[in-house]
Design goal:
Length: 370
């Protein structure tokens, strides 16, 4: 039977968990530390160090162009880490098979995962891999790979390279067509196919797992409804601050458009008299203009971040739709099984009645023979 390829991509990562730091693993009961020596670290760079290596020169160039101290970037990693609309590091978890058909002592599958990680940069030149870890120390699980990466996109404004997943994927040639065909979905399909090709080269019999349920074939209806409610709540909590901020900047833009400096033509003379009150009014308007202008300069970046969130929401909505179809299929199959069971029960009842009749006939025949 073919093994499934499972691929999960998200925004939560933990280097402490991945490198098996005791401060983390001591609280994680699903990890057997006596087996951790079997784990494999392919690459490992702390996020802060990686940001300095990737973006350090771009930050310096950007700061050199700034004439105002308050516009300079002290630490790009901290800037992204405190930005509610961006993520410092993304992580995908890759697995071949499950604990029933693969388990942790799977040398061939380990080789496939190692090759997958080693060929990452070739497939993903704009997704900088900062960590790749194979775990074999979860007794109730299966050998699996964590890949931590930072999107690095070339930009025409601000820093010449920035953290932007949407732009990074576009620069790899992946475009969002509609809500059912987004760049992130296309990338995940690319990665699944890449791992499948590697497995086939190593003669591992695999198939793509189209579900998003950590290797499980189906969710129960109750599980699906609970997960959907939680996911919708999480999405709403993520989007509400963005909606509020977008409205705030829309108001700022509208206020900016109403700013106008009134001028009065006067005869050209060597000396010009200006009332102090008029001068003060112009200065106040100039200050307002500069303040609003600074805020407007970040508006487009904010709107871009909202667009990225909307794409993430579309991906999640698509996943929910797939799960809903799966649940409907389960309910349909369950209904068929119930009907088949009912028919079987009717047949059993009919056969029991016929059997009783035959027994009665046998008894009568026996008595006649006697």
């Amino acid at each position: 039977m073919s093994k499934t390829i499972s691929f999960h991509n998200g925004t939560i990562w933990s280097r402490g968990h991945n490198i098996r730091d005791e401060r983390y693993t001591s609280k994680q009961k699903h990890i057997n530390s006596s087996l951790s020596a079997n784990n494999i670290t392919i690459c490992d760079t702390p996020a802060r160090q990686a940001y300095e290596e990737i973006f350090g020169q771009a930050v310096q160039e950007y700061n050199d162009r700034q004439t105002r101290k308050d516009r300079k970037i002290d630490c790009y990693y901290d800037k992204i880490r405190h930005d509610k609309r961006k993520h410092p590091v993304y992580e995908c978890i890759v697995q071949i098979g499950d604990r029933n058909d693969t388990g942790n002592n799977a040398e061939l599958e380990k080789q496939a995962l190692i090759k997958y990680a080693e060929m990452w940069a070739e497939r993903n030149p704009t997704l900088h891999l900062v960590g790749a870890y194979i775990h074999c120390d979860e007794p109730d699980g299966t050998v699996h790979l964590h890949c931590d990466y930072i999107p690095v996109a070339e930009c025409s404004r601000g820093m010449r390279v920035q953290n932007s997943l949407d732009k990074a994927l576009r620069q790899q040639g992946l475009q969002s067509i509609n809500i059912n065909q987004t760049a992130q979905m296309a990338w995940q399909t690319q990665e699944r196919n890449a791992l499948m090709s590697i497995c086939q080269e190593l003669n591992i019999d695999v198939q793509l797992n189209q579900e998003r349920t950590k290797g499980r074939q189906h969710l129960s209806t109750a599980e699906y409804k609970a997960e959907r409610a939680k996911l919708e709540q999480d999405i709403e909590q993520e989007l509400q601050p963005l909606r509020d901020e977008l409205q705030e900047y829309t108001d700022i833009k509208r206020d900016f458009e109403t700013i106008a400096v009134q001028t009065t033509k006067i005869p050209l003379v060597k000396k010009v008299l200006v009332f102090e009150s008029e001068l003060q009014e112009v200065e106040n308007q100039a200050k307002s203009y500069r303040a609003v202008r600074r805020q407007l300069e970040t508006l487009e970046n904010r709107e871009e971040n909202v667009a990225e969130k909307e794409i993430e929401l579309q991906v999640k909505e698509t996943e929910l739709a797939e799960r809903e179809k799966c649940c409907q299929k389960i309910e349909f199959e369950l209904d068929k099984m119930k009907k088949a069971l009912k028919k079987a029960e009717e047949n059993v009842k009919r056969y029991s009645s016929e059997l009783s009749y035959k027994k009665s006939e046998l008894i009568e025949t026996t008595m006649e023979l006697v």
